């Protein structure tokens, strides 16, 4: 299964994404992430969640090929709703979520990480929101939780990426470690949280969400509206064809 969840004896629940080749999740995959986080928060034996991934990178966002091989807007709507559900589930999980990021973290991956409570990364990790290349908008809400406003805008408009090492200076990434130490680093900080009284930690998570200056759910939903507009205009479909290398795109060359 692309998404697995395992509760350790110490109360740390490890949720793993494993969808080769690049962890670009299908519509169902995003809903599965949401379900795993919802289950974790509802389980009183879970004290903290570590969200991690197997393979070359943490997450490459939405499965563009699934979208391009589905007629109509069904896959688009599904992907938008699935991403919304997954990001919301991370943010609203009743216990803290520690993201352990390896390799690339793009698009929807930034949505997951930006809504996490703590981020550790491997020394090959990098982050980006290349949505403009595919005629979509989204995850600026979450990138803005990782970098200052002007940096977020530059990354968004240019589709550039930023390394985990650079994010340490902004305080959004706790630490950067060699890739073979990433899981240990994530479990270390998760263990510190799990050692606290879980009743206090759950109350603290709710309290911190309650004082957040930005409503991340409404903010992201607002962004998604522009994605729908671009799709109705046909812009997004054209750019996704180019990206996915479909027969339609090849016919234009």
From TrEMBL:
The keyword Lipid metabolism applies. Transmembrane segments: none annotated. GO terms for molecular function: lyase activity. The keyword Lyase applies. Keywords: Lipid metabolism, Lyase. CDD domains: crotonase-like. One of its GO terms (biological process) is fatty acid beta-oxidation. PANTHER family: (7AS)-7A-METHYL-1,5-DIOXO-2,3,5,6,7,7A-HEXAHYDRO-1H-INDENE-CARBOXYL-COA HYDROLASE, ENOYL-COA HYDRATASE-RELATED. This is Enoyl-CoA hydratase family protein. It comes from Nocardioides agri. The lineage of its organism: Bacteria, Bacillati, Actinomycetota, Actinomycetes, Propionibacteriales.
């Amino acid at each position: 299964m692309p998404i697995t969840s395992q509760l350790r004896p110490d109360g740390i629940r490890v949720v793993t994404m494993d969808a080769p080749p690049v962890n670009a999740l299908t519509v169902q995959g995003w809903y599965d992430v949401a379900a795993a986080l919802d289950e974790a928060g509802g389980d009183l034996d879970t004290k903290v969640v570590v969200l991690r991934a197997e393979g070359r990178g943490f997450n490459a966002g939405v499965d563009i090929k699934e979208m391009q091989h589905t007629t109509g807007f069904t896959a688009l709507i599904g992907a938008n709703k699935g991403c919304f559900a997954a990001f919301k589930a991370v943010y609203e999980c009743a216990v803290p979520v520690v993201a352990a990021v390896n390799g690339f973290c793009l698009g929807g991956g930034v949505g997951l990480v930006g809504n996490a409570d703590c981020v550790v990364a491997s020394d090959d990790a990098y982050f980006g929101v290349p949505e403009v290349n595919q005629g979509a908008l989204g995850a600026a809400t979450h990138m803005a939780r990782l970098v200052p406003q002007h940096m977020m805008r530059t990354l968004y408009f240019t589709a550039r990426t930023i390394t985990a090492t650079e994010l340490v200076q902004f305080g959004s990434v706790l630490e950067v470690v060699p890739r073979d130490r990433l899981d240990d680093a994530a479990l270390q900080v998760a263990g510190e949280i799990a050692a606290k009284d879980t009743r206090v930690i759950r109350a603290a998570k709710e309290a911190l969400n309650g004082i957040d200056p930005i409503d991340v759910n409404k903010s992201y939903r607002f962004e998604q509206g522009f994605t729908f507009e671009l799709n109705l205009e046909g812009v997004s479909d054209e750019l996704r064809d180019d990206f996915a290398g479909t027969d339609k795109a090849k016919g234009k060359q």
